[in-house]
Design brief:
By secondary structure, this protein is an alpha/beta fold. It has helices at about 55-60, 135-150, 160-165, 180-185, and strands at about 10-15, 15, 20, 30, 40-45, 85, 95, 100-105, 110, 115, 120-125, 155-160. Helix 2 (about 135-150) packs across helix 4 (about 180-185). The radius of gyration is 16 Å and the shape is globular.
Length: about 200
């Protein structure tokens, strides 16, 4: 995929990203009027925790998860959540909500002096376990996605769920290599949390 800025417009259709496999989630809503979409939030997820390769995450984000299929699912029974993007261990990319719309990924949160990060952020889930490492293919897909989002939206910040909901959330966790992401996207330090 080209990193040239002119490639950006052909990649997007009403907030849907052409390289992603589309699977619509019902868990979304409109953003508040005059919202500036300027934050990317990196998450990690696996269902059940630490198990990879199944369709459980897709099922969760589309309200199709069989709550009785695994004991862990009783802890999240009835949960209605979504993310804009999901990057699997092999680098394959899924999209559940138009980036123009508000996905339900951040929960109670605050960043750069603003509460309710769902309003003005784009959520990117990495298939993985908080504290565990991620795959080369995921970093490469994340790099390309971040750059394409940056070209299409006024992105000014990239943070983890742990940075926007400290103490409540811990993903993507210590296994995520922020320095690797920073070096690969070649964006200034001001885009990233001060704690890095």
């Amino acid at each position: 995929m080209s990193d040239h800025p002119n490639a950006s417009t052909s990649l997007w259709d009403k907030g849907w990203y052409a390289p992603a496999q589309r699977l619509d989630s019902p868990n979304f809503g409109p953003r508040p009027p005059d919202t500036c979409i300027d934050l990317l939030v990196i998450h990690s997820i696996s269902l059940p925790p630490g198990q990879y390769g199944g369709q459980e995450v897709q099922a969760l984000f589309t309200n199709q998860l069989d709550w009785d299929a695994h004991p862990y699912f009783s802890q999240i029974r009835g949960l209605q959540v979504s993310s804009h993007f999901y990057i699997r261990r092999d680098g394959s990319l899924w999209q559940f909500v138009s980036a123009d719309d508000r996905a339900w990924h951040a929960g109670q949160s605050e960043y750069r002096g603003r509460p309710q990060c769902n309003d003005d952020s784009i959520g990117i889930e990495l298939e993985g376990l908080e504290g565990d490492v991620f795959e080369d293919a995921q970093y490469e897909r994340l790099r390309r996605l971040c750059l394409d989002l940056h070209r299409h939206y006024p992105i000014a910040h990239i943070a983890g769920h742990e940075h926007i909901a400290p103490g409540r959330k811990h993903d993507p966790g210590a296994g995520f290599d922020w320095m690797r992401l920073k070096a690969s996207v070649k964006l200034p330090n001001r885009y990233f949390p001060l704690c890095l």
